[in-house]
C-alpha cells in the first residue's frame, strides 16, 4: 500500500465516528482510567465488554444515518512513555495495539444493517500531554511513534489517526512513521479558544506546513478536542488548506483546555446547540465528511449531530 496516496473512501452520507471515549467511561460508566488511558481495558473481559457496549452505540448511530462507520481503537495512550507509567513494556504495548485492531475487526463484522461501510482505525495520541506543546524534532517523533503504527499495520488496520496534536513537528513525524510502515495516517490538531494550536501556530499554517514537509502525505486532517466556537476563529473556508479538513471531533464544553484540566465534573454542554454549531462549522468547510466528538460527548451527542443531516452534499 502507498500510504501517501491513500484517500478516505467515498460514502453516500459520510462517516460517523465516536465521541469522548475516556470521559464517557469515567463519568458515565464509573471506570477508573489511570492517566486517562483506556487501552488496559482490553486485557480484561469486563473491560472489553464495556468497550463493546460503547462502540455499539456509534454503530447504531451510523446505521440510522445510513453512513459509514470509523471504529477507532482505544489506544490514544498506548505509546512508550504512557505505557511505561501503566506497567506496559515495549512487547506488551505491541501486543495490546495489535489486539485492539483485532478486537475492533470482530466488532466490524457484526455491525447492524444500514451501516454503509466500516473501517478500523488505529488511534494515536501525542507523546506528551494533549494540551501542551512539545518539542520540535520531527525525526524524534517519527522514531517514537513508529512502533505503534507498525503494530497497527501488522494487525491489518485500514488507517491510523493521530489525535490532539499540538505541534506541526509531531504531526510531521507521525506521517513519516506511517509512510515508513506503509500505513495511511490522518492528522488531527487541537486548538485553543482562539482557533490556534497550543504553540500559537495558526491552523491554516499548521496544515500547510504539514503538507509541505510530508509531500501532502497525511491522508486528511481533522480538528479535535475543542468546542466549535473555539475552532471557528481559525477557519477560512475559502482558503485552499480548508479542503484538507475532512473531520471534526468537538468537545461538548466551551471551557478552555486549562479549565477542563481543573474540572471535577463533566460538562456535557447543550446537545441541540452543540449539534447545530458543529453542523454550521462543517457547512463552512468544503470537504468535511467525518463527524464525531471528543471530551464530554457520547453517543447522544453524535446522534444529535447526525440528526441534522449528512456532511456529504451539504
Give an account of the 3D structure:
It comes from Nocardioides glacieisoli. One of its GO terms (molecular function) is metal ion binding. This protein is an alpha/beta fold and 314 residues long. It has a single domain, classed as Alpha-Beta Barrel (TIM Barrel). It contains 11 helices and 8 strands. The chain has an 8-stranded parallel beta barrel, surrounded by 6 helices. Helix 2 packs parallel to helix 11, helix 4 packs across helix 5 and helix 10 crosses helix 11. It is globular. The two termini are 31 Å apart.
Question: In summary, what is this structure?
Answer:
By secondary structure, the chain is α/β, with parallel strands linked by helices. Helices cover 41% and strands 13% of the residues. The protein has a single domain (14-296), classed as Homocysteine-binding-like domain (TIM Barrel).
Strand coverage percent: 5-15%
Gross morphology is globular
By DSSP, the count of extended strands is: 8
Low-pLDDT segments: none
Give a short account of the largest sheet.
8 strands, parallel, barrel
Mean pLDDT: 95
CATH level-two architecture: Alpha-Beta Barrel
Query: What's the Cα radius of gyration?
Result: 17 Å
Count of separate structural domains: 1
Question: In terms of structural class, how would the helical and strand content be classed?
Answer: alpha/beta
Task: Give the CATH topology.
Answer: TIM Barrel
Residues in helices, as a percent range: 40-55%
- In DSSP terms (H or I, runs of 4 or more residues), the helix count works out at 11
GO molecular function: metal ion binding; methyltransferase activity
InterPro entries: HCY_dom, HCY_dom_sf
Protein name: Homocysteine S-methyltransferase
Cofactor: Zn(2+)
Amino acid at each position: 500500500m502507498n500510504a501517501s496516496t491513500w484517500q478516505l473512501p467515498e460514502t453516500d452520507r459520510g462517516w460517523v465516528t465516536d465521541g469522548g471515549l475516556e470521559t464517557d467511561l469515567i463519568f458515565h460508566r464509573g471506570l477508573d482510567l489511570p492517566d486517562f488511558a483506556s487501552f488496559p481495558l482490553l486485557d480484561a473481559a469486563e473491560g472489553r465488554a464495556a468497550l463493546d457496549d460503547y462502540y455499539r452505540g456509534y454503530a447504531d448511530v451510523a446505521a440510522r444515518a445510513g453512513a459509514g462507520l470509523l471504529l477507532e481503537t482505544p489506544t490514544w495512550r498506548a505509546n512508550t512513555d504512557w505505557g511505561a507509567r501503566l506497567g506496559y513494556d515495549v512487547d506488551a504495548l505491541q501486543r495490546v495495539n495489535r489486539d485492539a485492531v483485532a478486537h475492533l475487526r470482530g466488532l466490524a463484522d457484526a455491525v447492524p444493517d444500514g451501516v454503509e461501510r466500516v473501517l478500523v482505525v488505529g488511534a494515536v495520541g501525542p507523546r506528551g500531554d494533549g494540551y501542551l506543546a512539545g518539542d520540535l524534532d520531527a525525526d524524534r517523533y517519527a522514531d517514537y511513534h513508529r512502533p505503534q503504527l507498525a503494530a497497527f499495520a501488522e494487525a491489518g488496520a485500514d488507517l491510523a489517526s493521530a489525535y490532539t496534536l499540538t505541534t506541526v513537528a509531531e504531526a510531521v513525524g507521525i506521517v513519516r512513521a506511517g509512510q515508513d510502515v506503509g500505513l495511511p495516517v490522518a492528522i488531527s490538531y487541537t486548538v485553543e479558544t482562539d482557533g490556534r494550536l497550543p504553540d500559537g501556530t495558526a491552523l491554516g499554517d499548521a496544515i500547510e506546513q504539514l503538507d509541505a514537509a510530508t509531500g501532502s502525505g497525511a491522508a486528511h486532517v481533522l480538528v479535535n478536542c475543542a468546542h466549535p466556537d473555539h475552532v471557528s476563529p481559525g477557519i477560512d473556508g475559502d482558503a485552499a488548506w480548508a479542503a484538507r479538513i475532512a473531520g471534526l471531533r468537538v468537545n461538548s464544553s466551551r471551557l478552555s483546555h486549562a479549565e477542563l484540566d481543573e474540572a471535577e465534573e463533566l460538562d456535557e454542554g447543550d446537545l441541540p446547540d452543540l449539534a447545530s454549531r458543529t453542523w454550521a462549522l462543517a457547512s463552512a468547510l468544503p470537504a468535511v465528511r467525518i463527524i464525531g466528538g471528543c471530551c464530554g460527548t457520547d453517543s447522544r451527542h453524535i446522534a444529535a449531530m447526525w440528526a441534522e443531516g449528512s456532511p456529504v452534499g451539504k
